[in-house]
């Protein structure tokens, strides 16, 4: 049994971050503090957030979520790339990446 009520995979870039929730599906938010707060409204204290390491962009968001008391896991992008290749996916998109991050 999973101890988390929902798991979210996140791929973050300069302007937006794509989210795939285990029950919410695909969502997209602006990469701003207001976007962080809008995403936070979806979370419960027993949510797990998994995101790809993307330099400054992931760090700011991961710190924000951590300081709000959420469980955050940052994953090496090479691990995600190899996982996607292992599944023989031919096209790499942000929307597809977030779903892969969730099931990594």
UniProtKB/TrEMBL annotation:
GO biological process assignments: DNA transposition
UniProt-recorded Gene Ontology molecular function terms: DNA binding; transposase activity
Entry superkingdom: Bacteria
Domain Transposase IS110-like N-terminal: residue ranges: 9-101
Pfam family, one: DEDD_Tnp_IS110
Protein name stated in the entry: Transposase
Biological source species: Polaribacter dokdonensis DSW-5
